[in-house]
Design brief:
The protein is mostly helical and 78 residues long. Helices cover 74% and strands 0% of the residues. The chain is built from three helices and no strands. The protein starts with a helix and ends with a helix.
Length: 78
Amino acid sequence: MPGCREVVKNDINGLIVPARSSKLLSKALLFLINDEKARLRMGIQSRKLAEEELHKVELHKQEKQQTTDYEELSLIHI
């Protein structure tokens, strides 16, 4: 999938498997099934990355709102 590579960092917060490679997909799934530590580590990293991204989005929204507020205030004084 095109967007997966933007979100998944191989062996950091998930595993990337080449398209149409059922053998490698099977191997990756068996690895995750059998390695609880890897699953937990990747899950923690996924949450951390998601929280960081959400924080960026929230900051952008706040900046945009502050700019809008400032522009509205500057129009009042003209």
